[in-house]
């Protein structure tokens, strides 16, 4: 029995791995087209339904479709009503995919794997390799399903399993919860559906229990994307609505489960056909019942889970009522962008403390702050994109809008550098319990401080368009370059002197200084629009940069190092 259980779990994992390969292969090959199709398929509910069905057939996962749809709905790319129509299609799509895989086509597994490996091995570009990956995954899925059927045959004949299932036949509601928990644990409905098929094929479970088990799979599958989303209430509208629909269907069928199961069995027969017809019929009936009312359902979800208004996270100053007045709208956007700058400043401060204190919790906080920066930058872009929809804005306001968006994008890039590079360098330092030399630590802290000061100057320029501050910030580009070069030279000298701390942290130190130099380049870019508007820029440098006074400016604050 122990070997049998290991075999079943192993085959289930192979099935899930094949499913993952299909999903990642299709996403890498056609992901942009799928996302575009989902985003534009909202002309009517029928088109949205069909798009959800086709996307799920391609991805072999309603969860993947749900995550994509939820991301679009939370960013207002699609309405909640159209997102629910897409999900109704996705639910039918996953049932259709399961039914196709239940056919006796396991003999195709070797051929699909052969085709997939050949395409993957002979291709030199990413898209054919991704297509080959999808073929391999589909072949592994068919192979795993065949092996699950073979491995579960002794289980169907086991008296222990028979006794357990006879108890479940008397309490089908327990089977509903059991299959739901199993689906939630595997994060996929497919393995559980085929386990039910293997049990139903041997006649060890009756038709009513089978119906309950299939409903449990559907409800458990709807809970997976809901638990996977950690964002705010807006992002939970679509998965929560999908779960509510499936629960409503289950509650409606409970009083009639026995007669419905018997009637369906007389039509579909026993075994795999009955299980798959139950699975498909449940989702088709739910789609037919609720598709005409997705507008009402969307409104209910919008009211039940409203967008947060003065919350700590999310935009605070992007007032939609100001869009009729371009001046006010630009002021709102600039104020929100200043808030993004404050978040970047906090990320820089947290990164430095993580490096100084070797605190892994601070590294986790950086990732959360970067997520907020990404969301705010996206909100600012969408807000300013609405400006001028009703009537065109003048050239000055259009230029100002571009400047604000450009600065917000640069701040988002800085956040990515901090999260993807500085945070990883801090984690590496913590993992190896390394320490900087005293001189190296001072150089790093000095450049962090200078970077934060430049960020504050850049924020001032965004608001005031002060030319003197802009000239000062651009001149910092030379200082930062010299600073980084001088620090690298001093670090190399410490390596020649065989300083233990410098030997341990050499790569980390140099990468941190290089990342801070990149961050300063993004910060300094805010000065160029103001200087260009004032006619202070030449083609490649500040006017008068060669003059003695400006040369003195560039050398006055050049740092010295030990």
Give a concise summary.
This protein has 562 residues and is mostly helical. It has helices at 2-40, 45-59, 62-74, 80-102, 108-122, 126-157, 159-170, 172-186, 189-201, 207-228, 237-253, 257-268, 272-290, 294-304, 326-357, 360-385, 395-431, 438-464, 467-496, 500-504, 506-524, 527-533, 548-556. The chain contains 23 helices and no strands.
Describe the structure.
The protein is mainly alpha-helical. The protein has helices at about 1-40, 45-60, 60-75, 80-100, 110-120, 125-155, 160-170, 170-185, 190-200, 205-230, 235-255, 255-270, 270-290, 295-305, 325-355, 360-385, 395-430, 440-465, 465-495, 500-505, 505-525, 525-535, 550-555. Helix 1 runs antiparallel to helix 2 and helix 3 packs parallel to helix 10. It is globular.
